[in-house]
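If your schedule permits, I should be very grateful for your opinion on a structural question. What I wish to show you is a protein chain and, alongside it, a tokenised description of its three-dimensional fold. Would you kindly read the sequence against the tokens and tell me how you understand this chain to fold? Here, with my thanks, is the record as I have it:

===
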Amino acid sequence: MRTWFITGASRGFGALIAKAALEAGDAVVATARNPDDVTKTLGGHDHLLAVRLDVTDQAQANDAVAAAIKRFGRIDILVNNAGFGVVGAVEEASAEEIQRVYATNVFGLLGVTRAVLPHMRRQRSGRVFNLSSVGGYASRAGFGIYCSTKFAVEALSEALHGELEPLGIHVTVVEPGAFRTDFLDGSSLAPHAQRIADYDQTSGQTREWSSANNYAQQGDPAKLATAIVRLAGEAQPPLRIQFGSDTVAIVEAKNAFVASELAQWRDLALSTDYPAEELAGA
């Protein structure tokens, strides 16, 4: 029986992954700001431990991990799921809005990961799933601040992958596209308070899209949860996994664009090195 530690587990992807893991016969430490919400969502279960955790509070992160170890003796799989979105132009974002989303999406993820890793290193085994987004691979107007937090998650995950793989710990970045969770409603996605008319045709359109597509997304979140449980059992899980046909299309388009732009400007890019003969004589 494996032990999962899942943040933001009272609803959305977190709750569904917890449910799928329990159905697979595993133990789950499901964390949320209000653990009663976890119990209401998942019910009572011998292998479920609901723990209070605001990921922006390092002391709570340390206590939650300690409670997990006390109850189940180990943590095999960490799912960093807690997070929320903001929508609007980069210039429209206030310092307070930026700090708040970074505190959860980046610094909260870091704090929980740093609390869990000593136990995984001692075991010389473990899996870390960091919930990013298609926006962590390709940004877009209107989601610049949110996407920047997910780009940070991707960079951290790439480094962690290199640092932890020799220790038997695998790190995977999860890149969902548009899934039918509550991400686009007010409980998870906050529009910037300021609105600048000059951005109505760019970021403003993204705001409108977010409202119009709420609960109409093509992605099935229960299928994503099942896929995560499957990946947790793979001997060599991927560094990145894209979920949703929209994500696959966006990643393929960005890869093609980057390759094309690199080819177009390759000569200028290479022109900034010292001459080869000078380097050879150095």
Q: What stands out?
A: The longest strand covers residues 169-176.
